[in-house]
């Protein structure tokens, strides 16, 4: 292709880009693709999940600033560009009954209005491919579900200058494909679980599988398997950069790298919308676009 390939990954919080599709992005950067992460919120209401930093007064009092710095480091590691959409983290409500969401947070915004910020970025960056979350958000965090909603509106209407006038949002642009991240799928989880047990190792996925079975979670249709095993180390390095969210000695890293690369050296996606013809299954997010 003579035209530059461009990939936009839309995520809810800083750290989501490193836990969902990071090796894919690193692979495409290595190939010369222009990759942009759109981060909807600053993660202001996120908990400090790394026990090594819990109780750190500075981190607790400056969580927004700290998470921005973590995002800067992860962005450099992955080699991607990154833009903040500027919405405020909704937090993850817990309890029974669930407490109301905080006033002014991302999840309470008008969907069409909030999508305008993403439309503006799409028209500026002009990606052929967008990745985001499915209608369940990947998991039911209100910001992840809202990220899905604005991504769907923006994909459909980035070329609609009546809905989003060119004078305010820039020249129209129509992305060609939209994918849902599906890296935490049953196929991969079972393969890794069995590989660990076959080698006499404890599997970190036993409770996951039991919980999925109890909840009756159905398998999504995986359409696209992107080979990117050689970039798993970069993925993990970017993830560890989000030190408030990830314990480097925690469960994320309990499967040895050699097993990951041998058993499941891909990241997975569900093709949700396409303006080009393609054959399934795919091994490339730009399938049908490169050829045209």
TrEMBL record:
Family matches, as InterPro entries: GlcNAc_PI_deacetylase-related (IPR003737), LmbE-like_dom_sf (IPR024078), Mca (IPR017811)
EC number assigned by the record: 3.5.1.115
Signal peptide interval: none
Residue sites binding Zn(2+) per the record: 13, 16, 144
Enzyme class: hydrolase
Catalytic reaction(s) noted: mycothiol S-conjugate + H2O = an N-acetyl-L-cysteine-S-conjugate + 1D-myo-inositol 2-amino-2-deoxy-alpha-D-glucopyranoside
Reported cofactor(s): Zn(2+)
Cofactor mode of binding and number, as noted: Binds 1 zinc ion per subunit.
Entry keywords, A to Z: Hydrolase, Metal-binding, Zinc
Top-level taxon: Bacteria
Function description: A mycothiol (MSH, N-acetylcysteinyl-glucosaminyl-inositol) S-conjugate amidase, it recycles conjugated MSH to the N-acetyl cysteine conjugate (AcCys S-conjugate, a mercapturic acid) and the MSH precursor. Involved in MSH-dependent detoxification of a number of alkylating agents and antibiotics.
Assembly information from the UniProt record: Monomer.
Family: Belongs to the MshB deacetylase family. Mca subfamily.
Classification via PANTHER family: N-ACETYLGLUCOSAMINYL-PHOSPHATIDYLINOSITOL DE-N-ACETYLASE, N-ACETYLGLUCOSAMINYL-PHOSPHATIDYLINOSITOL DE-N-ACETYLASE-RELATED
Name of this protein: Mycothiol S-conjugate amidase
Organism ancestry: Bacteria, Bacillati, Actinomycetota, Actinomycetes, Kitasatosporales
Gene that this sequence comes from: mca
């Amino acid at each position: 292709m003579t035209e530059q390939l461009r990939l936009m990954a839309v995520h809810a919080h800083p750290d989501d880009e490193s836990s969902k599709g990071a090796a894919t992005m690193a692979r495409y950067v290595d190939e010369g693709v222009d990759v942009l992460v759109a981060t909807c919120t600053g993660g202001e209401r996120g908990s400090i999940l790394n026990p090594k930093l819990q109780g750190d007064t500075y981190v607790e009092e400056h969580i927004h600033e700290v998470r921005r710095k973590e995002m800067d480091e992860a962005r450099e590691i992955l080699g991607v560009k990154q833009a903040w959409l500027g919405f405020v983290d909704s937090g993850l409500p817990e309890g029974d009954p669930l407490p109301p969401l905080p006033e002014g947070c991302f999840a309470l915004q008008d969907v069409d209005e909030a999508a305008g910020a993403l439309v503006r970025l799409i028209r500026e960056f002009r990606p052929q491919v967008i990745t985001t979350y499915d209608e369940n958000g990947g998991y039911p965090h209100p910001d992840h579900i809202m990220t899905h909603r604005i991504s769907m509106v923006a994909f459909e209407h980035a070329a609609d200058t009546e809905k989003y006038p060119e004078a305010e949002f820039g020249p129209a642009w129509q992305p060609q494909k939209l994918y849902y991240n599906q890296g935490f799928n049953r196929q991969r989880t079972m393969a890794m679980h069995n590989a660990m047990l076959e080698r006499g190792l404890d599997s970190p996925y036993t409770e996951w599988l039991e919980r999925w079975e109890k909840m009756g979670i159905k398998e999504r249709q995986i359409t696209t398997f992107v080979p990117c095993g050689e970039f798993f180390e970069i993925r993990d390095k970017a993830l560890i950069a989000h030190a408030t969210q990830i314990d480097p000695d925690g469960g994320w890293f309990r499967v040895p790298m050699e097993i990951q690369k041998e058993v499941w050296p891909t990241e997975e996606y569900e093709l949700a919308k396409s303006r080009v013809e393609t054959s399934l299954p795919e091994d490339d997010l730009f399938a049908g676009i490169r050829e045209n």
